[in-house]
Amino acid sequence: MSGYRKLGRRSDQRKAMLRAMTTYLLENGQIKTTLSRAKEVAPIAEKMVTLAKKNDLASYRQALSFITKEDVAKKLFTEIGPKYADRNGGYTRVVKIGPRRGDAAEMAIVQLV
Q: Which of 5, 51, 73, 76 is the most exposed place for a label (fewest CB within 10 A)?
């Protein structure tokens, strides 16, 4: 877990939220969220892709312990990992998309490159 943004949550809620967002990002390729959440999710997703590149049982189980859906973990190791096999890091991109209408929170899109 990255330790510097608390995101207005207790640690258990924060971890659950980041797990869910990482799972959704790996499942769909991109998510739209606030900038601070995006900056927290990106490095976690990068770590998951790095695990998938190792492609052994230990790293699969390590990824499963964080990702909430088993089919997303399978997709991570069969499709996403091999796709980035020749790339050294930088698997995600955070793009700012301006303020949210309701509360003017800075919004961003996190996507797998």
A: 5
